[in-house]
Amino acid sequence: MITSVDFKNFKVLRNTSLPLARFTLILGPNGSGKSTALQGLQLLSSATSFRRETLVSIKASDNEPVTITANWDEGFKAAATWHSNGSVEFAFQDRSGRRHDPQERAVNSLFRRLQKLRIYSLDPQAIAADVVLSPRIELGPQGSHLAGVLDRLRDEHPERFEALNDELGRWLPEFDRILFGTPNQGTRTFILRTRRDRYGISARDLSHGTLLALAILTLAHVDEPPPIVCLEESDRGIHPRLLRDVRDAMYRLSHPEQFGDKARLPTQVIATTHSPYLLDLYRDHPEEIVLAHKESTGARFERLADREELKEVLKDTHLGDAWFSGALGGVPLEE
Question: Domains of the chain by range and CATH?
Answer without folding.
Answer: 1-117+226-335 (3.40.50.300), 124-225 (no CATH)
